[in-house]
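Researcher: Please predict.
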Amino acid sequence: LLARHSHRSFVYLKRRVNPDLVERLHTLLKNQGISGVGLQREYRRFYPGGEVFSHVVGFTNVDDRGQEGLELAYEEWLRGKPGRKRVIRDGLARVVKDVESIRPPQPGRDLVLSIDRRLQFLAYRELKGAVTRNKAKAGTVVILDVASGEVLAMVNQPSYNPNGSKRGRRGRFRNRAVTDVFEPGSTMKPFTVAAALESGRYRPETLVDTSPGYIKVGRYRVRDHDDLGLIDLTTVIRKSSNVGAGKIALDLPREQLWGLYHRVGFGDPTDTGFPGEANGQLTPYARWARIDQATLSFGYGLSVTALQLARAYAVLAADGLRRPVSLLRRQQPPAAERVLGADSARAVRAMMETVVSAGGTAPRAAVPGYRVAGKTGTVKKSIAGGYAKKRYLALFAGMIPASDPRLVMVVMIDEPSAGKYYGGQVAAPVFSRVMAGAMRLLNLAPDGLQPQSPRIAAAGGAK
């Protein structure tokens, strides 16, 4: 050991030693009169949020350098810079006099997150419970502030303890909300309907014939669970009709459909600066076959992250305005870009309120006293060469209070295996419990004390 490190003035034998062991070593070295071996006090980060915040904050290594999460992304910002000074040393290399300061040291800077600690703990608790109850492989929850684009909560399961010496398998370190992509399934349908309204060729009461419960697109069939017959656009959303969404999409110019999807953020990076952040994928419309145009309308053939999906739903919540998302607290709301007509956004939001009412696919997402707008998704997981038969993603994306949305929330449960797998059964209850608590914590006034009977306004194209 000494020969291998002969060029160094010292070498670490062991670091991050348990305090009890340090005391015993100190006594041993003193009693045995062993010289040349010393003890050096070191400091390391302690994360009071533990596993609740671990995927966002990350952790540092033994040298206090960021390894995951925002610790890694903002390593240079958080780390101070050492100073330099000229000194006089004696023959034993001890400093005997400071001569002058060449460069003063600079402390690390503060990083203030947008995360609301109360909502983070609430979301973590409910997500963990849902993943456990449904014997799921994993899960993710993202909550956005509609007005500012700030991320108020971002949690994943399984998690890890950043304070532990053994943090578990490395696969647990990744923040699934920004690194993992999936097909959004039926949570895509509100944007297909929004594109139809923007075209000026459709109104909320426009009828679509879904009989006999399927349509043929080339050699493929697009199916519904039931023959819903002649239905309006609201029913396409409420009953989650693949046939209705597919027929609408095929009736629109490809570039118009792609344009709406792209404007709300699909295929666009979220630009949070988070390590490993995925962009998702939205294929250029020039490469679409007709079956692609149909399946994209109900969320197959593209990929998104949970944060991208939340950002897109925030557009509907903000009356068609898109704001950049952020994991850092903002002093003032950022400039917004209009990407969807306000009337169209409000009309789609009203349609999504029917999803949470009796007869919709997600009555379990309801929050007593508040109007909720949202959409379920139940997605077959893609595998090499096709789709798995019994492996699903359960999704719910929604906003509250629907009359003037303040929060958007996305819930994704990966491979529930306890018997239930529909988004309305597995993901929607998580939304309900988290948002019920959030309304109390944020002291937001109820807007749904009367029975919900949303009025759907006519909508035209964006101005």
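Model: The first strand starts at residue 84 and ends at 89.
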